[in-house]
Amino acid sequence: QVQLVESGGGLAQPGGSLRLSCAVSGFTFGSYAMSWARQAPGKGIEWVSSIKSDSSATYYPDSVKGRFTISRDNAKNTLYLQMNSLKPEDTGLYSCGRGLIADYWGQGTQVTVTT
């Protein structure tokens, strides 16, 4: 079955960096675009980034553009999110999803940005 497992979350200081990973199984990873989204406490889900199946294009909302970088390794069935210059408002549960409009999501990894 389709599985997406995120890792790499944790505690970071403002201005710091974290790298999230999403290991997938149960489908042909290289055939699908992939996305990241987050949910802050008490707030709705916010799309964070997407990448085409062949890495030919990436997409970001203005809130993270220039600070976050999405990438993938199709040989390793793994999706990444490099997060730099972190801000307290980046705090949330980060999940990876299959597709530009995701049909499957992982359980998420918690990111907390605080002094």
Task: Give the tags.
four-stranded antiparallel beta sheet, mainly beta, single chain, 115 residues, seven-stranded mixed beta sheet, globular
Provide mean pLDDT, rounded: 97
Span of the ends, CA to CA? 40 Å
What is the overall number of helices?
A: 0
**Low-pLDDT segments, ≥5 res:** none
What is the alpha-carbon Rg in Å?
A: 13 Å
Overall 3D form: globular
Q: In total, how many beta strands?
A: 11
Strand content: over 45%
Helix content estimate: under 10%
Largest sheet: 7 strands, mixed
The H/E string reads EEEEEEEEEEE
Helix/sheet category: mainly beta
Description:
The protein is mainly β. Helices cover 0% and strands 50% of the residues. The protein is built from no helices and 11 strands. The protein has strands at 3-7, 10-12, 18-25, 34-39, 45-51, 58-59, 68-73, 78-83, 92-98, 104-105, 109-113. Strands 2, 4, 5, 6, 9, 10 and 11 form a 7-stranded mixed sheet that branches. The N and C termini lie far apart (40 Å).
Put the structure in a nutshell.
This protein is mostly beta strands.
